[in-house]
Amino acid sequence: AQSVTQLGSHVSVSEGALVLLRCNYSSSVPPYLFWYVQYPNQGLQLLLKYTSAATLVKGINGFEAEFKKSETSFHLTKPSAHMSDAAEYFCVVSGSGNTGKLIFGQGTTLQVKP
Amino acid sequence: GAVVSQHPSRVICKSGTSVKIECRSLDFQATTMFWYRQFPKQSLMLMATSNEGSKATYEQGVEKDKFLINHASLTLSTLTVTSAHPEDSSFYICSARGQRGSGTEAFFGQGTRLTVV
Q1: Cα atoms in the Cβ-side hemisphere of radius 13 Å centred on B68
Q2: CB pairs under 8 A between A and B
Q3: Is the Cβ–Cβ distance between A90 and A48 less than 8 Å?
């Protein structure tokens, strides 16, 4: 069984500040991990993914995440927040391979203050 | 650019009628498609997984006779909400996984806002 927990349903940062969105996972098999972003009333866009290659993953829009097996974590970071980063972020776990279903975390709303 | 197209983006229907939502993979063959439901300010809830040419696998608690899923081709899956009721009003999102990228990530449609009146 797999699950993912996002710590903090709402995160607020100032523009230019560090963004840190926390995600912990549980998986009985080697996981694939993803971060997706959702803007209001839209679908989801892939930010980055971990599929057992490099543990530090770089994604689009300056985001990156580090897979830490010992901590079962996959936290999302960005050095400097932009106003356009305000959105809903989902951490997602899947079994390896292309048949595993995607299990979503509860989501974290990122607010960026000017 | 968009690789998964979902249609319609918004639909309003009368209680008791049926509504069909289409999900198309535009430039790749989607061997697996997923259908999600999202309530306001909540996460995505997986409703069912469908593989081309076979019956969909529904998650626990999802009525398969109410939410009919068809994945007749490698580029098209449909979700039909039958005998819709106001409690079926929600945001429905499809995603597709297949021969695009590494094959591990899923690409999402833009979502369909269903309102049953």
Answers
A1: 11
A2: 59
A3: no
